[in-house]
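help with this:

***
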Amino acid sequence: MRNNILIIDDDDDLSFVITDMLEGYGYNVTAAVSAQEAFDLLAERSFDLILLDINLPDATGFEVCKELRRVSDVPVIFASARTSESDRISGFDTGGDDYLPKPYSMAELISRIKALMRRAYGSSTQEKKVTFGDVTVDIQARSVTKGGRSVSLSLREFDLLAYLCEHAGTAVPKDKLLSEVWGAFSTVEPSTLTVHIRWLREKLEQNPASPKYIKTVFKVGYILEVEG
C-alpha cells in the first residue's frame, strides 16, 4: 500500500497537526524540519509522497525539489504561504506536481494527496496479489508464499520484490531500484542490489542459477517476468 508521506517544513506545530490528521487517515508520516534532515531520511528509505514547504532554514523548497528530481520521481506537493505566480511557476519548473497555498483546509490537503497518489500509482484496486510460478506476492499484506508455504523475506528483500511486482514485465534500471528501495540519496553500492537479487532468487526460483522469473537485463537492470 502506498501510504508513506514525508513532510518537510520548519513549522513544528503545523507538522504535528498535519501528521496527526494524516495518520488518522491511515498514512505513515515522517517529518523533517530542514533540507539536511530530509536528505538524511531520503538516504535511509523511500517515500510515496512529499509535502514540501518553500522556506526552510538551510535551503529553499525549490532547491530541495530540484536535487530530488535528479534521482527520484516521487510525487511532490509544495505547501507554502508564498502564493505569487512566480513562486508557483518555480515550484512546477523545479519538478513539483502540485502547489497548495497556506493556509489550507485538511479536507483539501487530503483531496490533493489522494488525487496525486492516483495519478502517480493508480487506484488502490491495483494493489493486488502478483503470482508467478508457484509464488504469490500480496503487496498490501506484505506476504509471500511459495507452493502454499510462507516465505520469510527481510524488509529490503520484500520492498525490492514488491517494486519488481508493481513493474512486472518492465526492465527496471539498477539506479532506479537503488533509489526507490534504498532511498533517493542512499550511498548503497550497486553490489548490494546484486546480493539482494541473488537472495530473492535463492528463495523463490526453482533454479536460482538459471532464473525463470527474476531476470537480469544486460546493461540495464532487472525484470520480473510474469506468465500470462
In short: The chain has eight helices and twelve strands.
